[in-house]
Design brief:
The complex is a heterodimer. Chain A contains five helices and no strands. Chain A is mainly alpha-helical. Chain A has one domain. The longest helix of chain A has 46 residues, at 67-112. Chain B has a single domain (9-251), classed as Spore Coat Polysaccharide Biosynthesis Protein SpsA, Chain A (Alpha-Beta Complex). Chain B has a seven-stranded mixed sheet, sandwiched between helices. In chain B, α6 runs parallel beside α8 (201-210) and α6 (150-167) packs parallel to α9. The chains are: A mainly alpha, B alpha/beta. Chains A and B meet through α4 and α5 of A and β3 and α4 of B.
């Protein structure tokens, strides 16, 4: 069993997190897409704290001694997953930024020395960029 | 490595890419980061060695007058708006080359380490050795003209050995930025397979697994006058990155990518 105090702290904490996320989405500070994992984290914590039966059987299943550590375990696991998800997103963003940086540089050069370039029109460069999968 | 040059008709039959490169449209790219005072000379050297080649300097958001000097030396200059790294700069050159219909793309460091005169040797090797990529190796003729630091020599030795093991051919200098390739390879490098931070032994292994033929020719180097774009990486991270990159390259399926 977890203490009533911990139960209250966990429920209040996860509900507060949930409300904060909804508020961020409402004010358009957080895109819906990125709220999914946060909402999942808040809901899972809230569910575990409120449903004593689920928490005790999960504690047994993962071989933990204390139900409190089960709560922390799931909170931490989901938080780590969130961090990994952001690293993936950052890698993706970096790939896009590099690709756009290259396109800007190439466009700049073709504007400056169009003739030396074979006078390739900008639309042609953009088209071949799309074929290479830049817009991916 | 085949020692004798195959006669022309035979090489055309054996090598689907074999076109006489002597009349090919040639582009030489120079990735440059803060190479003021050096890049102009390299551009002039390349133009002198290969008067018909187009020279492209990719200025990786240098803080100095690299771009100005390159333009004055007569190179086409592309300026990246933000510093993006050695691999990203090279890839910009490959994109320029493939989009503008060049048949052969060479790359040479902008700090003056590489002697442009070897481009001729490499161009001949590309045609004669039935190859898609020619690497200018600093270690192939062991007369000790190039003396890297101990840590660098160990890194180059380790990854050279791994690359040799995987590709089952002798690779002595996987870090060399002095290369020459056919347009087909450059087109392959324009896709997301290319590491935009620091391409090295991993890309040689990828080329081998994709079915491209990589050959080395010996080149002599001048001592590096300073920090080149190459040495900008920290060595511990470099070793880690290269090991991981080679490992995952080997885990991926080896099917030849259709890059057309």
């Amino acid at each position: 069993m977890i203490t009533t105090n911990l139960r209250i702290v966990a429920i209040v904490g996860s509900v507060a997190l949930l409300l904060f996320i909804i508020e961020l989405v409402r004010r358009r500070r957080l895109k819906e897409e990125y709220s999914v994992l946060w909402v999942t984290l808040a809901l899972v914590l809230c569910l575990l704290a409120a449903w004593g039966g689920l928490l005790s059987s999960l504690t047994h299943a993962i071989g933990a001694v204390s139900q409190a550590s089960t709560l922390y375990f799931f909170g931490l696991t989901l938080a780590l997953f969130l961090l990994l998800h952001f690293s993936v997103r950052v890698s993706d963003l970096e790939r896009r930024v590099v690709s756009m940086t290259q396109e800007i540089a190439l466009l700049g050069a073709s504007n400056r020395n169009g003739a030396a370039n074979g006078g390739q029109p900008v639309s042609e460069i953009v088209r071949s960029a799309e074929e290479e999968g830049v817009a991916r | 490595m085949p020692s004798a040059a195959p006669v022309a008709p035979l090489s055309i039959i054996r090598n689907p890419y074999a076109r006489p490169v002597t009349n090919a449209k040639l582009l030489v790219i120079l990735p440059a980061y803060n190479e003021q005072g050096r890049v102009g000379r390299v551009v002039a050297d390349v133009k002198e060695t290969l008067p018909d080649a187009e020279v492209l300097v990719i200025d990786d958001a240098s803080a100095d007058a690299t771009a100005k000097e390159a333009i004055e030396a007569g190179a086409i200059t592309v300026s990246l708006p933000v510093n993006s790294g050695y691999g990203a700069a090279l890839q910009t050159g490959y994109k320029y080359g493939t989009r503008n219909g060049f048949d052969v793309i060479g790359q040479i460091d902008a700090d003056g380490q590489h002697k442009a005169e070897y481009l001729t040797t490499m161009l001949h090797a590309l045609e004669e050795q039935d190859a898609d990529v020619i690497i200018g190796s600093r270690f192939l003729d062991r007369d000790g003209h190039y003396q890297p630091s101990l840590a660098r020599a160990m890194g180059i030795g380790l990854f050279g050995r791994i690359a040799s093991l995987v590709t089952r051919q002798h690779i002595s200098d996987p870090t060399s930025g002095f290369q020459l390739m056919r347009a087909d390879v450059a087109r392959f490098f324009c896709t997301e397979v290319y590491p935009t931070d620091y391409p090295d032994a991993d890309i040689l292994i990828l080329l081998h697994r994709t079915g491209y033929r990589v050959r080395e020719v010996p080149v002599q180097m001048r001592p590096s006058p300073g920090q080149s774009m190459h040495s900008g990486h920290r060595s511990a991270y470099y070793v880690y990155k290269m090991l991981l990159s080679i490992f995952v390259t080997l885990l991926r399926p080896r099917a030849r990518t259709d890059t057309s």
